[in-house]
Amino acid sequence: MELTAYRMWSSVRAGETGFQPSDARELLARVPDDRAFVSSDGGMDDAPPTPELLAWALDALASVGVTQPQLRALAQVVPERLVGPFV
């Protein structure tokens, strides 16, 4: 399952009730840690740079109770397994 940082960021930024970090946490509770990852889905005109967007998403997920091991799986372990080690 792919969690997109931009979708969460744009909802929070606009004060909308769209996809929130707490919604992501609820989805993550239903999916094994080795089956989910976070992506920026950035590149939108109003989005911050990709590294900032990903950092924001990880901080937002941590703030709603996603654990450090889960965050590591989302941002490093699963992506590395899917596309290989980052250089």
Explain what you see:
- The protein is mainly α.
- It has helices at residues 5-14, 21-28, 50-63, 68-83; strands at 2-4, 37-39.
- It has one domain.
- Strands 1-2 form a two-stranded parallel sheet.
- α1 (5-14) crosses α3 (50-63) and α2 (21-28) packs across α3.
- It is globular.
Number of domains: 1
Low-confidence stretches: none
Question: Strand order of the main beta sheet, please?
Answer: 1-2
The Rg value, from CA coordinates, equals 12 Å
Distance between the termini: 24 Å
Average predicted local confidence, pLDDT? 90
Number of helices: 4
| Mass-distribution shape | globular
> How many DSSP E strands?
2
Any key phrases for this structure?
two-stranded parallel sheet; 55% helix; globular; 87 residues; mainly alpha
Please specify the SSE layout and strand pairing.
Blueprint: E1 2-4, H1 5-14, H2 21-28, E2 37-39, H3 50-63, H4 68-83
Parallel strand pairs: 1-2
Helix pairs in contact: 1-3, 2-3
Short description:
With 87 residues, the chain is mostly helical. The protein has helices at 5-14, 21-28, 50-63, 68-83, and strands at 2-4, 37-39.
